[in-house]
Amino acid sequence: MAPNDSAETNGEATGTVVVRRKAARYIVPFAVAGVAAATIGLVPALADSGDPDLPDITAQELVEKIAASDEEQLSGTVKVSTDLGIPSIGGLAGSFAPGAGSAGSSASPEAKLMELASGTHTLRVAADGPDKQRLSILGEGSEYSLVHNGDDVWGYDSESNEVYHATSEKGAGAGAGKHEAPKGVPATPKELAEEALAAADDTTSVTVDGTAQVAGRDAYKLLIKPRQSGSTIGSVTVAVDASTGLPLKFTLAPSGGGKAAVDAGFTEVDFAKPAASSFSFTPPKGAKVTEADELKAGAGEKGAADKARKDLSAMEGFQGPNIIGKGWNAVAEIEMPGGAGLPAQDSGDMPAQAQQFLDALGDKVTGEFGSGTVFKTRLVNALLTDDGKVYVGAVTEDALVKAADTAK
What's the predicted TM-score (pTM) here? Predict the structure, then answer.
């Protein structure tokens, strides 16, 4: 069994720089309403069985092993579940996704991938190099598949019998490149691990925490923990394949205890070359096919353009978030356009029933900043002040209030 070896004594900072570079392409949207959903994605592998006896390895060496992992051919099954303490997003995700609505498509990947932000899911994945990938989300009697093959990206929702199709731009000159599969909610333990390691700095402890077996393969366990108090994140554990360096399982435990908020892992994995048929797709007979260009054209209609202009006008003067603190305790301060916050409880500006509904969702708090309401999940919390500022981060209620007081 590998020793509990601290990364800070083995060049932790140097190793994570390499990972940061490789993780740059995994950018997750950060928005007040969707931050919790967008930064999380996957859960229990149900595959741990025994602690294999492996050669000792330092945390620095294990981080470098992840960074050097270049497995481009694999297939397998990933068990996915997310418990943020909020209602399941389910089909509502598509309502907020680009292209959603009467002119949209239920097969749009943005709509379907957001569903991974809540509930439990089983995924089948396959990859053969940078130009061929397939991800399927298995439902009860239905399946959604996203297939990337060369210049084509296909999305197919068997429940609605709808197809989404996108292609790379032609004639765009050298370096135009191929169409990449849409990014957003992380869909594999590797993506989640690279995001976590990219954020590691001197506020983070990174150690080797023994060994495990995941999907029948020997693995080392990398333990990532905040050194600071006040974070809602207790720890992140990454099970790393001892042979290939590929993250096989990712577990995020909240500091408040209880079941994992994120626990993603392979239940089966095979590093053989997948069959070519895995990446071929032909729209089924009778399926409604929506081209990505059609969705873009619909978004450019006059009504949508008018709405966009109004939205831009409302956002005039918005300077973006101000980051308070650092590391695991970083809090984003966002000033709402026009300074519009929630009506004060005794202002009379809100009906009593509406006020009771908001009170049930959040906690009223006060401090040097004034007063406001904290809306909480198991991982990300947000404070909306009565004067129209928002403070959001993976921190406790007390840490949010402290950040608001500091900003004041």
Answer: 0.74
